[in-house]
User: Fold Thioredoxin domain-containing protein from Achromobacter agilis.
Amino acid sequence: MNGPRFDPAQVFQVFGMRHVDTAGFDAAVAEAPGADLRCVFLWGQDCYNCNLFKQAALLHRETLLGLGLTWFEADVYADEPLGRRFSLHGVPTFVLYRAGKRLGRITGWPGLPQFTAAIRRLQDAASENSSQAS
Assistant:
């Protein structure tokens, strides 16, 4: 019996990932207004480790969607200048922004527990900062 075939491209639709490239990156991600936590998934076509993330993301979609991230994606094999901008040495890489500030990056797919813990730390830091400002 064969189950449904894994289609890594489904991850873009499931997570509502908006495509970004070198030309529009700053306007869409870095300079866009808002306090949402933006996660840019930098990946490459036929990248084994990128497909591992895509498969894990689809298997654990509820958990990842529950993080409330605004997702973007870019194939840095096709857009090499964007990869150079972030001095990438491997993909997948996840770059995180909020309100025009780059908060950090996760290189490689560390697995669901480590990824969600890193995102939660950023969210907790943001809520602490907003409560101190009021």
The mean pLDDT is 91.
